[in-house]
Amino acid sequence: MNYFLTEEQEAFRQLAYEFAQGKIAPVAAEYDVKAEFPWPIVKEMARMDFFRLWIPEEYEGLGGGITEMCLVTEEMSRACGGIALALAGTALGTFPILISGNDEQKKKYLPALASGEALAAFCLTEPEAGSDAGAIQTTARLEGDHYILNGTKHFITNGGVAKYYTVIASTDPKKGSRGASAFIVEEGTEGLTFGKKEDKMGIRASATCEVVFQDCKIPKENLLAKEGHGFMVAMKTLDKSRPGVASQALGIAQGAFDHAVRYARERKQFGQSISSFQAIQHMLADMSTQIEAARALIYATAKMIDNSSTDYGKESAICKVFAGDTAMKVTTDAIQIFGGYGYMKDYPIEKYMRDAKITQIYEGTNQIQRNVIAAKVIRESAMHK
Ligand code: COS
Question: Residue 384 has what pLDDT?
Fold first, then answer.
């Protein structure tokens, strides 16, 4: 399908495709087994300016938007959903600064993020605050010119490898989500430590760990937006980042599909290629249809966000639900086409299914996305009555 991307967007997609197939695909299995963060690849991504894509030009970025982030995330995830996350997780951690940082904060933090010299991590989730993001218990107390942070964030993507942490903490616990505020915490700040590194089912090349604040003292200039605006910053961040998760899911689905079509052509049973059987053909047709539908949704939503729409929470959620569910379905069917071989770790296909699962869970489970979609649909209907 032709999405009429600009010449520049096509060039970035092509560059990301070549990089992913040339540098990521050959080592994806190795990083998955070792569950190691891919520093050499991340450094190359930085040299090739991938981290600059979604940062405005005035802060040393390339001035692209969500479309560019989605294209590159998709192509990299097609090779490895875990390695791609070093990039996509940094975009997520950067969005609170882009959305609500003042000029000084942007000048201080964005150039290092654009060059890839610094990675970012978004710290919202806590052991007792997953889907219920308003229930965070991490606190930030103002004392003179500093905020003192206490609490534990967990399942943090890029935890321990990022230089900048955008953190949602409560400045007024009595007010619930209206008492939440957003902060930037730099690596090396006293009182910031990293806990348990998670041993995950999939996306194993991605660093995931606990981020712990114990009397962590940060300058009060590190407050993003205003006190009490943290929940809104978090929600707006997720509205922007969910098409990125959808792109990760899309890339994983596309990667599994690429392998499945190739295998179906090569594998012979009953004296012929299994791609000549209608049972396999129909599976391939359904997989291809679902992938293209996910792509169309994601690109349309990314375009909508980049063209300054202000309310795109529903569309972002729709992308994530559809692409996440598609990734799970397509990767499961890809294994089915591989048959017994697909179940074995000697073949690349089972990793795609393990990597796909997280896209239905993080940045808001697909059940929460359905809540967001339903709430908006019902509100819209009430307005038009
Ligand atoms: N943009 C801006 N503001 C938003 C918003 C959005 N997308 N969504 C909600 N808000 C505002 C609301 O307008 C409300 O403002 P007021 O207090 O001024 O009325 C406030 O935020 C609270 O909204 P709401 O009552 O809808 O919050 P809930 O506690 O019911 O939670 C859900 C809403 C479930 C949607 C939210 O908690 C959520 O997204 N959970 C999933 C979190 C998640 O994705 N976690 C994974 C993080 S991994 S990085």
Answer: 82
